[in-house]
Amino acid sequence: MPPECFLKRFGGFLIWLSRHLTRQALAATLLPGRMSHAGNGLTRLGLPRGLPKMITIVKKNPQGEALFSYQGEVLAATSRVCIIRAFWTWPDRDLGYARFETGDCFTEYYYTDRWFNIFAIAGKDGERKGWYCNIAEPAVFLEDRIEQVDLFLDVWVDRQGNVQVLDEDEFQAATNLSSAQRRAAQEGLQTLLEMVAHREGPFAEIEP
Fold first, then answer.
1. Contact status, residue 40 vs residue 78, Cβ threshold 8 Å
2. How far is the C-alpha of 62 from the C-alpha of 177, rounded, in Å?
3. How many angstroms separate the Cα of 100 from the Cα of each of 12, 19, 140, 200?
């Protein structure tokens, strides 16, 4: 989506509240492969073993130009996945399909081999609200930051697993997407929808 729309809708993701994760719950959120604080992901992110670190997340447009950045705390990482936590500090915002409120907890999942990210959202009472997903190029893990190119399409998944694909009109009308980006974005969307349908990764928590 355009920078101004993105900032208007999601500016409140700048600071986040930690959500309690047990080892079992954390393992369920990962793609195949064990979580390890000694893995390549932590080395590339400059993380000491067993110690959380604040890191900068950089959102870019399809041309690779930075739109904005913010910091989040790294919960854990491998060479393929990095999990960030933060909390909503802006005024309440009703998006129609979901309402974000002060104190809502977010856990962000970034992948180096998937064309999307996933934000798991819970209220400050711990109740799951749903999952907000951005279709985007695979994340790039650097020593002090994570960079990712946004590709307009977004997906909302509610607690029961009902899916809404968002901003399809903006995606279709976009003139700054290459044919390769457009094709990969559509493939990424299908992969994400399959994860939801099969209750894989973060979507394992969808209510039966």
1. yes
2. 6
3. 9, 16, 28, 24
Burial call 126-141: b when 16+ CB within 10 Å, e when fewer: eebbbbbbbbbbbbeb
Give the contacts of 208 (CB within 8 A, at least 6 positions apart): none
Q: Tens of pLDDT along 128-163?
A: 999 999 999 999 999 889 999 999 999 999 999 999
Q: Output the six-digit token pair for 164.
A: 């809404």
What sign has the CA pseudo-torsion 139, 141, 142, 146? positive
Task: Find, among 191, 180, 204, 208, the residue nearest to 21 by Cα.
Answer: 204
pLDDT in tens, 99-122: 999 988 889 999 999 999 999 999
CB atoms within 10 A of CB 50: 8
Rounded CA-CA distance 141/160 in Å is: 32
Euclidean distance between CA atoms 78 and 169, whole angstroms: 35
3-state SS class at 166: strand
What does the DSSP 8-state code read for residue 198? Answer: T
What is the DSSP code (8-state) at residue 123? -
